[in-house]
Design brief:
Four Helix Bundle (Hemerythrin (Met), subunit A); 8-stranded mixed beta sheet; Rossmann fold; flat; 3 domains; alpha/beta; about 10% strand; disordered C terminus
Length: about 450
């Protein structure tokens, strides 16, 4: 995510770090490189102009130039201004004082509107809401069926009246249905086009008048950069949107849309799509995004993912087993399962502070290692999982054959497990210092 921009900004900051003291000329010269990096990242020109001016004005102050660590002070200012451009604070979904909360999803075809209609509704379901999906796109072939499939996967009801009823009537009837059936949130999937046209906009305006939505969320593809910003600007002028969902952010190496949409429209980015799975949607945190753009990682998001994946009771049981040295291969298998729940390993590694995008550029995290580990353990008997010491040569050959791996792979896993148990014993006895880790591969 934002790999290209991160690398260019890092290179620009080297100019500041290479000098013990900075002059106003040094700052302006360095900011020219920052300006070029942002323009190459497809950030809106007016955004770049305002950003560079603000940072430069703050950076040439005596507090920075006379500081013992001026380069760090400038990076701090850049971080703060990046955060400010993207909205400063997280913008939450507005909930209507009287249900149902009506969320109207709008956007062009191909941005992921239908999928993210479901993703957002699914996220709300996890927060104890009772969402209703509404199929109001009667033009795109299979749009209704697509929403029904998404609803089935998420266990959410889908309101549809087929493709012969007007979208305005569908939206109005959906509200009546929601009130009658206790659905406190209604997500309306509206029609999009390959490009903005008057007919589409007029229909969206009619739906807005008919249902008076609490939120009008524009879904835009982050990878289209400045095009996404132009689309957001037009939709906002016609519909007065309340927020934006940026999709495909995991594939956006430039960052133009994320850094421009808020400034150009005045409307916040509320959510981001970070993958193809239906649970891969997150609130947009400007401060965390600014930190990741500058290569500082995103520890808070990493912690949150761990908290979501780990059950408190399981954690307590694991802690007890570590103290009592009764950790088994079944427990080891359980930990790999929890790791899987946290998502892509490459994405998790990208959240770790100090991990440079360039270092990961040609590296591919081999997630099949987890799959092989699980297969090997599942090919063992209960006795072997509880007491690996009984696994002799013939058992190893049987386990390797059953898991589709080699005896070498089995030996490697058993060695890793043994090392992990030793580390846990040291930890339990208080002998483990700064060492630590969970060996994989």
């Amino acid at each position: 995510m934002f790999q290209g921009l991160t690398e260019k900004l890092t290179a620009a900051f080297k100019r500041f770090r290479s000098k013990g003291k900075l002059t106003a000329g040094d700052v302006k010269e360095g900011m020219r490189e920052v300006k070029l990096a942002l323009l190459e990242a497809d950030v809106n020109f007016m955004v770049v102009k305002e950003f560079v001016k603000t940072v430069t004005d703050r950076a040439v102050g005596t507090q920075v130039l006379e500081s013992l660590v001026p380069a760090q002070q400038i990076i701090k200012i850049v971080n703060e201004e990046l955060c400010a451009i993207m909205g400063g604070e997280v913008a939450k979904l507005t909930i209507a004082p009287k249900p149902p909360t009506v969320v109207m999803m709008v956007g062009l075809q191909g941005a992921g509107k239908t999928t993210h209609c479901g993703k957002l509704a699914g996220l709300m379901k996890k927060q104890s809401k009772r969402p209703l999906l509404v199929a109001a796109d009667i033009y795109r072939p299979a749009a209704i069926r697509q929403l029904e499939v998404v609803g089935e996967k998420l266990g959410l009801p889908v309101f549809t009246m087929g493709d012969k009823t007007s979208p305005v009537k569908i939206a109005k009837e959906a509200l009546k249905y929601a009130e009658k059936n206790g659905n406190d949130m209604v997500f309306i999937d509206t029609a999009g086009r390959l490009q903005i046209d008057e007919e589409m906009m007029d229909e969206l305006i009619d739906i807005k008048k008919a249902v008076n939505p609490t939120e009008i969320l524009l879904v835009v593809d982050a990878m289209t950069g400045q095009v996404a910003v132009d689309v957001a600007k037009t939709f906002n002028e016609r519909l007065d949107i309340t927020g934006v969902i940026l999709t495909k952010l995991d594939g956006d190496t430039r960052g133009g849309a994320a850094l421009s949409v808020r400034y150009v429209t005045g409307k916040p980015i509320k959510f981001v799509g970070i993958g193809e799975k239906l649970d891969e949607i997150e609130p947009f945190y400007p401060d965390r995004m600014a930190s990741r753009i500058l290569g500082m990682g995103d520890v808070l998001s990493l912690i949150e993912k761990a908290e979501q994946a780990y059950d408190e009771k399981q954690a307590a049981i694991l802690e007890k087993k570590m103290r009592e040295a009764t950790f088994t291969l079944d427990d080891y298998l359980e930990q790999f399962g929890q790791l899987r729940k946290m998502g892509s390993l490459e994405r998790l590694i990208g959240m770790i502070p100090g991990v440079k995008a360039s270092a990961l550029k040609n590296a591919k995290v081999d997630e099949s290692v987890i799959g092989r580990t699980e297969a090997i353990i599942r090919s063992m008997t209960m006795a072997e999982r509880t007491d690996p010491d009984i696994i002799n040569a013939s058992r190893k050959r049987r386990i390797a054959a059953g898991s589709g791996t080699s005896v070498e792979d089995v030996n490697k896993l058993l060695k890793q497990f043994s090392d992990t148990k030793k580390m846990m014993k040291q930890f339990a006895s208080g002998k483990l210092g700064r060492r630590g880790g969970f060996p994989i591969g």
